[in-house]
Structures are given as C-alpha cells and as structure tokens.
Amino acid sequence: VQLQASGGGLVQPGGSLRLSCAASGRFFATNVMGWYRQAPGKQRELVATIARGGNTNYADAVKGRFTISRDNAKNTVYLQMSSLKPEDTAVYYCNAEVRLSVFESGKPYWGQGTLVTVSS
To answer: What's the confidence (pLDDT) of residue 106?
Structure first.
C-alpha cells in the first residue's frame, strides 16, 4: 500500500492550496483518512480527519479555513486550505487506515509528506 501526496508549494499569506493524497496497491478499503503536519522543531500534529462515511474532525487552529474531503471510489483524500497563515508552514503528511482484506481491521499508513510554505 502506498500513499502519494501532492499539491504543496509556496503561497502568500491569505492564499489557498489544495493537497491530494491517493492510496494505491492491493487492499480492501480505506477507513479514516486524514492530514497531519509537522513544523520545524515541533511535533507532528493532527490537522483534519474524515471517516469513510464523511464525518470530519478538525484541529482548532484550522477550523473555518481548511476543508477535508474524500473520494472513496478513488481512495483519495483532499485538503483545501484557505486563508493561509505563516504558522501553517509545515510538511503535511496524509494518513489512511487501510483494511488489507475484508477479514482484517484497519492499519495505519503514511504518505511521504508535502511541504507547504506560507510566506510573502
């Protein structure tokens, strides 16, 4: 199972970016998918998660600015980021709980990370 994240880059404060992360390989289904971030010198922290049925959860720091969504048919999760601030600068990692078969519970997998830099 591989998670491939894309969409990071340099953006000015107040700007927007959209991250994507697609799960590929042989598996039965993805359960909860989400985004985490790690700023320089800080621990990795939760940004947002979305359950297979669509229930979402956001960190307080991004509520009202970021929107997480997913396409179950494509096993892809998205993060639409708006009103970006310099403090949003971090490497963003996608995470997915993947069921390898119908008989197994989900196991966590991580993407490689994509850098988001918010700076003027």
So the answer is: 87
User: What percentage of the chain has pLDDT greater than the value 90?
Assistant: 92
How many residues are there in the chain?
120
> What whole-number distance in Å separates Cα of residue 30 and Cα of residue 9?
27
Positive or negative, the CA dihedral 70, 2, 86, 57 is positive
- Average pLDDT taken over every residue of the chain: 96
How far is it, in rounded angstroms, from Cα 94 to Cα 78?
Answer: 9
Residue 120, pLDDT > 90, answer yes
DSSP state of 8: -
How far apart CA 10 and CA 118 sit, in angstroms, is: 6
Q: Please tell me the distance from the alpha carbon of residue 103 to that of residue 39, in angstroms, as a whole number.
A: 37
Residue 89 in tokens: 């600068």
